[in-house]
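Researcher: Sequence recovery benchmark, item below. Answer with residues only.
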């Protein structure tokens, strides 16, 4: 079960299509954040959902 905080902004990862929420460490760079994880960033291309 995923617990989301409704007051935090969310984006959708272009690689895995999963939603991900704002994190404190991304506070200064939130407009530039594209991927939900390092794994997706390395993959860098939309593909089938990975587990």
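Model:
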């Amino acid at each position: 079960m995923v617990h989301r905080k409704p007051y935090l902004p969310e984006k959708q990862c272009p690689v895995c299509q999963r939603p991900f929420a704002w994190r404190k460490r991304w506070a200064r760079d939130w407009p530039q954040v594209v991927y939900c994880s390092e794994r997706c960033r390395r993959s860098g291309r939309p593909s089938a959902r990975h587990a």
